[in-house]
């Protein structure tokens, strides 16, 4: 997710639109498709694959952290990360329920960084 935030920040700064596809088998459920990001998040203002293909002027496949070093400054505040997350990605409703259930079990009453509906 940190990589996603760095990429979103880079794209936002350059007037680019990110097309994030996370395909590592570590987090992926083979029954739910190849892009595990879509298992947990909905993209805000999604664009169809055909429209993206027509608009592509630059691509960069990121496989290792070193692939990002020349593009993205890696220092980011929690506030900036939260802003980017809320602007470009929405946790799916079942994820919000998991978080709410967790906090109910542990009795959490402190500050929590989470996605705001309608942000």
* Oligomerization status of the protein chains: single chain
Computed over alpha carbons, the radius of gyration is 16 Å
Shape: globular
Number of strands: 2
Helix content: 40-55%
The H-and-E topology, N to C, reads as HHEHHEH
Distance between the termini: 19 Å
The structural class is mainly alpha
**Residue-averaged pLDDT, rounded?**
76
Order of strands, main sheet, comes to 1-2
Report the sheet-strand fraction: 5-15%
What is the overall number of helices?
A: 5
Tell me the number of structural domains: 1
Low-pLDDT ranges: none
Main β-sheet description: 2 strands, antiparallel
List the helices and strands and how they pair.
Blueprint: H1 2-13, H2 37-40, E1 41-43, H3 49-55, H4 78-88, E2 89-91, H5 93-106
Antiparallel strand pairs: 1-2
Structural write-up:
The chain is mostly helical and 119 residues long. Helices cover 40% and strands 5% of the residues. It has 5 helices and 2 strands, in the order ααβααβα. Helix 1 packs across helix 4. The protein starts with a helix and ends in a 13-residue tail after the last helix. The model has no long low-confidence stretch (mean pLDDT 76).
Keywords:
globular; 119 residues; two-stranded antiparallel sheet; mainly alpha
Can you summarize this structure?
The chain is built from five helices and two strands.
């Amino acid at each position: 997710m940190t990589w996603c935030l760095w990429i979103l920040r880079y794209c936002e700064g350059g007037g680019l639109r990110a097309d994030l596809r996370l395909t590592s088998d570590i987090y992926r459920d083979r029954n739910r498709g190849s892009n595990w990001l879509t298992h947990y998040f909905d993209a805000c203002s999604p664009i169809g694959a055909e429209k993206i293909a027509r608009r592509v002027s630059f691509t960069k496949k990121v496989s290792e952290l070193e692939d990002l070093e020349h593009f993205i400054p890696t220092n980011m505040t929690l506030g900036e990360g939260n802003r980017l997350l809320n602007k470009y990605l929405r946790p799916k409703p079942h994820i919000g329920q998991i978080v709410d259930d967790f906090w109910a079990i542990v009795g959490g009453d402190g500050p929590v960084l989470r996605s705001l509906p309608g942000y």
